TrEMBL record:
It comes from Gelidibacter pelagius. Transmembrane segments: none annotated. Belongs to the LysR transcriptional regulatory family. InterPro entries: LysR_HTH_N (IPR000847), LysR_subst-bd (IPR005119), WH-like_DNA-bd_sf (IPR036388), WH_DNA-bd_sf (IPR036390). PANTHER family: HCA OPERON TRANSCRIPTIONAL ACTIVATOR HCAR (PTHR30346:SF0), TRANSCRIPTIONAL DUAL REGULATOR HCAR-RELATED (PTHR30346). Residues 7-64 form the HTH lysR-type domain. This is LysR family transcriptional regulator. Keywords: DNA-binding, Transcription, Transcription regulation. The lineage of its organism: Bacteria, Pseudomonadati, Bacteroidota, Flavobacteriia, Flavobacteriales.
Length: 294
């Protein structure tokens, strides 16, 4: 690092704006400064670091490998800084702080309400922000310090994250109300082998998707998947319309009043496991209180 200059917070704000826009004029407009002034600040930053952060030509701006690394790290730092300042204000007001929780829809039907009730009983000063997100979105947000705790269906995560199984359940078949099968006549998933299937997208949870496929394959058929969604309500609506059948974690049937019926699938080894997930080096003291209730 070259001497003679000092970093200021504005350098990093300017850098992030250009790194996100990949366009100096747009970044300058976003920052409400002149384009030449922004270019000088970025050049100064590169001189201080003695590192090239951007590749520039007449038409395009792109990040160097070093620039991409710095962008990722600065996003984490700024997220942490913003959250720390917010927590400081909450503590001043007598709160124990705020916990940002991401979750899959099924967590709201099982684990999450119980966790929030326990927290409110024992630590009413805690505050929460809840966001329904896919597995991959939760991973990304945890890595960037935008979430403190996630509820996912994953078995492999980066080594800096901690997984803990918190809820294990069966799978259920979802049928239109008018379907000939019912609790008495249903014995095996093979009875719907010729039906069209509506499943959660593999992008939403590849682990869940693979388990559904294995449930069917164990009974001698590969399901004909005609529709995929990331929302349970959408899946149930398609089933209600007679477009196909679905397989879901059993707890997802709670909270919905639609023209469908649920039948728990008997005699299968597969189970839907919900995991709590958090960053091992998370420094939010409020998170530690919540982990005690898991």
């Amino acid at each position: 690092m070259r001497r003679g200059y000092q970093f200021e917070l504005r350098h990093f704000s300017y850098f992030l704006a250009v790194a996100e826009e990949l366009h100096f004029r747009k970044a300058a407009e976003r920052l409400c400064i002149s384009q030449p002034g922004l270019s000088r600040q970025i050049k100064q930053m590169e001189e201080i670091l003695d590192v090239e952060l951007f590749i520039r030509d007449k038409r395009n701006v792109s990040l160097t490998v070093a620039g991409a690394y710095l962008k990722n790290e600065m996003e984490n730092i700024f997220n942490l800084l913003e959250f720390t300042l917010k927590q400081t204000k909450l503590v001043q007001k007598g709160s124990l702080g705020e916990v940002r929780i991401g979750f899959l829809g099924s967590a709201m039907q099982s684990v999450l309400p119980d966790l929030l009730i326990k927290s409110n009983e024992h630590m009413p000063q805690l505050q929460f922000i809840l966001k329904e997100l896919s597995n991959s979105a939760q991973l990304d947000a945890l890595e960037k310090n935008q979430l403190d705790l996630g509820f996912v269906r994953l078995t492999r995560v980066p080594p800096n994250l901690q997984l803990k199984p918190v809820y294990t359940e069966t799978f259920s078949l979802v049928l239109p109300q008018s379907h000939m099968l019912d609790l008495k006549s249903f014995t095996t998933i093979a009875q719907v082998a010729t039906e069209h299937f509506i499943l959660f997208s593999s992008d939403y949870s590849s682990l869940y998707y693979d388990k559904i496929m294995s449930i069917c394959e164990d009974k001698g058929f590969t399901p004909k998947v005609t529709h995929k969604s990331v929302h349970a309500h959408t899946i149930f609506k398609l089933v209600e319309s007679g477009i196909g059948v679905a397989i879901i974690p059993t707890s997802l049937q709670k909270g919905f009043t639609m023209g469908v019926k649920f039948i728990e699938i008997p005699n299968i080894p597969q189970r839907a496991v919900l995991y709590a997930l958090w960053k091992k080096d998370n420094r939010n003291p409020a998170l530690q209180h919540i982990l005690e209730f898991l």
